Amino acid sequence: MKNIINIELRTQKVDFSKCKTDILAAGLFSDAGELDKLNKELNKKLDGAIDRLIKLGDFKGKEGTNAIIYSNNEIGAKRILLVGLGEKKKSTLDTARNAAANAAKTSVELKAKTMSLALHNAFGGRLDLSAMARALGEGIYFGSYRYDEFITENENGRLDSLKVSLIDPDSTKLKKLQKGLSIGIVIGKAQSYARTLANRPANVATPAVLAAAAKELARGSKRLSCTVFDEKQMAAKRMGGVLAVGSGSQNKPRFIILKYNPPGKAANKLPTVALVGKAITFDSGGISIKPSANMEEMKLDKTGGIAVLGTMKAIAELAPPVNVYGIVPSAENMPSGTSYRPGDIINTFSGKTVEVQNTDAEGRMILCDAISYAVKQKCDIIIDIATLTGACVVALGKYMAGLMGNDETLIKDLQKASDACGEKVWPMPSSEEYAKEMKSKIADLKNIGGRWGGACTAAAFLKQFAGDTKWAHLDIAGVWNFEKATEFTSEGASAFGVRLLTTYVVGLKNKKK
Q1: Are 21 and 116 in contact (CB under 8 A)?
Q2: Are 157 and 204 members of one domain?
Q3: What are phi and psi of 326, to 5 degrees?
Q4: Are 201 and 238 contained in the same domain?
Q5: Residue 215 falls inside a structural domain
Q6: In this structure, are residues 75 and 99 in contact, taking their beta carbons and an 8 Å threshold?
Q7: What's the CATH code of the domain at 362?
Q8: What is the pLDDT of residues 188-236, one digit of tens each?
Q9: Is 185 part of a structural domain of the chain?
Q10: Mean per-residue pLDDT, 156-171
Q11: Which ranges constitute the DSSP H helices of 319-380?
């Protein structure tokens, strides 16, 4: 995979004002009554430039904003980048993460070769230093990311790399910062990896290519093993859901299984988690074809599966003592003479039959086989993630993912992981009322419900395949991508779920079966 932009991230012991760098990023809260110690020092050495900027009203410290002050010979940095942190009383780890992303994005735009972070200094002792450093690391990768691997002329003129240092003159603080930063680097790299794989077009990223990417991950890690079922093997196993969806495409489906093997024997007493991700490499809707407007975005219908690949990459490097399967059913949903049709009845891997009423409700058709596979592997917990329904976007907009499940403890644990990692979720129902809508008159189930509550009925459908296993479903249809660049990142795939799932799995290390 081509490096979109190479990020080198480290800690460095150095006085803030003496650090030689292209950009020194410092934070400022909007409700700060006066400048903090660092900004006072910088302001003095810059002959009151920060005070003048604030008095003119050109910088108010609002989150998502920044201002550049050009240096003099009194400090080591060529530029000071003041990054807005919003109201201090409302600050969280996400505040730090977003501020780092803002600083990284600006540094790339300015073609800076080096950038030094002093953002943590503004928070004082409000947040744990290690946790903040992890968030800062994740933010640096998120903000610096650009997807331009198919641009043959370097019109944007960006540099190939950015060297970033998280700086502090205090060795004790730096030790805590390094501990968190090392985790943030792993997760940040995994999310960038997933964003690139998700952004790739359908003529490049086919099911077979995703399978090859999974095998490459396994080859590069002693903790991962990979098994891939092709269409013949799936037919032998009667994985009718995946086969039906992929039946109309010349790019044949694949069923990808990554298994993480934890260090030591402690994992024998810990739960086995299955992460199941929908990977439709292109979704035309099949026979129930979609409108042509914005259909190019359907290359991103593989985002759930890619998030699982990215998570498995991070888990393999962080090496938590937890057992994990990464299960990615992948197919291309295309119309042709061999496509599955409305009215067809499909025999799924679980043995349940499904009446197809809409071929564009394909995600649940491949996920049901994957969830059933996880059950047969005797996994204790199953979490699926998918760009599943437009109804979830209607319900929650583009700010958070829908979260459904059959176990309250699992749902609460995912909410805690969400709070820690900044990928937001909102609980929604998938109870028996919704399940009744998915009953068919001529098969066990049908693949669409009524007009209303589509995200909930889709989850209720998947719930039938989890059985008594603890199960949760993440509908990421509203948060799969950025249609336009924001103050924190560029447009394109978000790889939502990598941070959330990694945080959840790592947090399981102290939980017993």
Answers
A1: yes
A2: no
A3: -110, 110
A4: yes
A5: yes
A6: no
A7: 3.40.630.10
A8: 999 999 999 999 999 999 999 999 999 999 999 999 999 999 999 999 9
A9: no
A10: 90
A11: 363-376
Q: How far apart are CA 166 and CA 187, in angstroms?
A: 17
Which of helix, strand or coil describes residue 244?
A: helix
Cα 242 from Cα 336, distance rounded (Å): 16
Beta-carbon count within 10 A of 297 CB: 14
Domain identity same for 94 and 203: no
Instruction: Decide if 74 contacts 90 (C-beta within 8 A).
Output: no
Confidence (pTM): 0.96
Residue 1 lies in a domain: no
71 lies in some domain: yes
Instruction: Name the residue range of residue 93's domain.
Output: 6-170
Q: How big is the chain, counted in residues?
A: 513
Could you tell me if 159 and 259 lie in one domain? Answer: no
State yes or no: pLDDT of 509 exceeds 80.
Answer: no
The domain total for the chain is: 2
Per-residue pLDDT tens over the stretch 257-314: 999 999 887 677 788 999 999 999 999 999 999 999 999 999 999 999 999 999 999 9
Residue 135 and residue 89 share a domain: yes
Distances (CA, A) of 218 to 210, 257, 264, 505: 13, 10, 19, 19
How far from the centroid of its chain's Cα atoms is residue 449's Cα?
Answer: 29
Helix (H, G, I), strand (E, B) or coil at 433: helix
**Distance, CA of 247 to CA of 338 (rounded, Å):** 6
Cα 363 from chain centroid?
Answer: 19
Tell me the per-residue pLDDT of 347-371, one tens digit each, with 9 for 90 and over: 999 999 999 999 999 999 999 999 9
Residue 2 has pLDDT above 60, yes or no: no
Percent of the chain scoring above 90 in pLDDT: 91
Residue 491 CA, chain-centre distance (Å), reads 14
Cβ distance 442 to 353 under 8 Å?
no
Answer yes or no: do 137 and 286 share one domain: no
pLDDT at 513 over 70: no
| Spatial distance between the Cα atoms of 27 and 49, rounded to a whole number of angstroms | 15
Q: Which residues are catalytic?
A: 290, 364
Encode pLDDT of 457-470 as tens digits: 999 999 999 999 99
* Interacting residues of 496 by C-beta distance below 8 A, sequence separation 6+: 303, 307, 401, 423, 476, 479, 480
CATH of the domain at 24: 3.40.220.10
Task: Provide the pLDDT confidence category of residue 33 given band limits of 50, 70 and 90.
Answer: confident
Does 325 score more than 60 pLDDT? yes
Q: Quick one: CA dihedral 169, 172, 175, 176, positive or negative?
A: negative
Q: Is 4 exposed, middle or buried (0-12, 13-18, 19+ CB in 10 A)?
A: buried
The residues facing 168 across adjacent strands are 13
